[in-house]
Design a protein that fits this description.
Layout: H1 4-10, H2 15-30, E1 36-37, H3 49-61, H4 64-68, H5 77-91, E2 100-103, H6 105-117, E3 123-127, H7 134-139, E4 144-148, H8 159-165, E5 170-176, H9 188-205, E6 210-215, E7 237-242, E8 255-259, H10 266-280, H11 287-295, H12 304-319, E9 332-333, H13 342-350, E10 354-355, E11 357-358, E12 368-371, H14 376-394
Parallel strand pairs: 1-10, 3-4, 3-5, 5-6, 6-7
Antiparallel strand pairs: 2-8, 7-8, 9-12, 11-12
Helix pairs in contact: 3-11, 5-11, 6-10, 12-14
Bound molecules: pyridoxal-5'-phosphate (PLP).
Residues 41, 105-107, 131, 176, 180, 214, 216, 242, 244, 250, 255 line the site of pyridoxal-5'-phosphate.
Length: 396
């Protein structure tokens, strides 16, 4: 018999994917260059040449089995060592090879981390607005996702709501900074308060509360932003990293879990991830991509285009009277819509070939997301269109 659970999920497909599909179809009619497609978070800047060069060099120097064979279950040992060393150097935390578990990007890192620190029925708390894939990531593990409503003034953590939702069933808290969709980075003050609160609750409940820190945008931070490394604030942190956005290689599916060495039972977590892999059929990312990514542990693509695009959009949006928090990183911006229903707002924008994503998808009604990982030239051409849309539809 087919599983009812997955059959039911078919009828609730991703709104973002549906909008991206619409943009492609519209592109066939009017030329994709005329569709201002702000739907998908697919990086647009090229991979750094060093990544391609690393692959070329590896293929010239290593044996076929080293390149294309299975890697050990936790990942390629050299890659894990290089990553541990780079994190230690950058953030001053004494990571070693044994604290790094190679994954198929952040999605897989979160899938492992959540299974490691929860049992079915346990609660995992996250904060709105959040990446909608957290629902399947968490719920398919058997844990239950609970969402703290957004602090819509700042998109930092709404601590009053968080404190009222906290209870002994909460085994993990999942955060994402800099954040998709708001673009906001949690400040040092926010992370300090979060750590103090969790430490107090661990004591009160008599069990650990792990912090799962989803960090695909860790390297995409704008000038002046306070975007510290989460694990330096709280010992029981599992950092879930991805090279998808920093190296522009989402199709290569590569990332890792980095276990803070001071976490409770830190040495058990990577071996536990290995056991989790056996059950979820993950079984190691591609060997050659692990090695190539680790060689680029200190590198990123040229990410400056995202800050250029953000400034163009932020300035135009504020000029047009939108309420919007200035992003500290990522390639997203999350303004308030000009009517109560952001779905209606985004539907009207489609008439102008502006493809915007309603905030409802991110558990924040009344807002909309623009993913500006597109060419700056297209962002520039979209500004008068945005102005026309706002003027004609809302008289501004
Ligand atoms: C906040 C967040 N987490 C996780 C992911 C998953 O990315 P990946 O599995 O490619 O690293 C994404 C992708 O857009 C994201 O925005």
């Amino acid at each position: 018999m087919l599983s009812q659970k997955y059959k039911d999920m078919i009828s609730a497909p991703s709104v973002i994917r549906a909008l991206a599909g619409y943009a492609q179809e519209r592109g066939k009619e009017i030329g994709y260059e005329n569709v201002f497609d702000y739907s998908l978070g697919n990086p647009s800047v090229p991979v750094p040449e060093e990544f391609n060069e690393a692959i070329r060099e590896l293929t010239k120097t290593l044996s076929s089995s080293a390149l294309h064979g299975y890697s050990p279950n936790p990942g390629n040992p050299d890659a894990r060592t290089q990553i541990a060393e780079s994190l230690k150097k950058r953030f001053g935390i004494p990571y070693e090879q044994k604290h790094i578990f190679m994954t198929s990007a952040a999605a897989s890192a979160i899938a492992h981390a959540v299974r490691c620190v929860t049992s079915p029925g346990d609660e995992v708390i996250t904060f709105a607005p959040y990446f909608p894939e957290y629902v399947p990531y968490i719920n398919q593990s058997g844990a239950v996702l609970k969402v703290v409503p957004a602090d819509t003034e700042s998109f930092q953590i709404n601590f009053d709501a968080f404190e009222s939702m906290m209870n002994p069933n909460v085994q993990a808290v999942l955060i994402n900074t800099p954040n998709n969709p708001s673009g906001v980075a949690y400040s040092s003050a926010t992370l300090k308060r979060l750590a103090e609160f969790l430490n107090a609750k661990q004591k009160e409940y008599g069990h650990e509360i792990f912090l799962i820190s989803d960090e695909p945008y860790r390297e995409i931070v704008f000038q002046g932003a306070d975007a510290p490394y989460v694990s330096t604030f709280y010992d029981n942190t599992l950092s879930c990293y991805s090279y998808s956005k920093s190296l522009s290689i989402p199709g290569e599916r590569i990332g890792y879990v980095a276990v803070n060495p001071a976490a409770k039972d830190a040495d058990l977590i990577v071996p536990m991830c290995v056991q989790i892999s056996r059950g979820i059929g993950h079984n190691c990312p591609s060997s050659i991509i692990q090695m190539a990514a680790a060689r680029c542990a200190y590198l990123t693509s040229d990410l400056s285009v995202y800050e250029t695009n953000m400034n163009l959009l932020y300035n135009k949006l504020t000029e047009l009277g939108f309420t919007v928090v200035k992003p500290g990183g990522t390639f997203y911006i999350f303004p308030k819509a000009l009517e109560e229903s952001s779905e209606a707002f985004c539907e009207k924008a489609k008439k102008y070939d502006l493809i915007l994503v309603p905030g409802d998808s991110f558990h924040a009604k009344g807002f909309f997301r623009m993913a500006y990982c597109i060419d700056t030239e297209k962002v520039e051409r979209s500004l008068p269109v945005l102005e026309k849309f706002v003027k004609e539809e809302y008289g501004r």
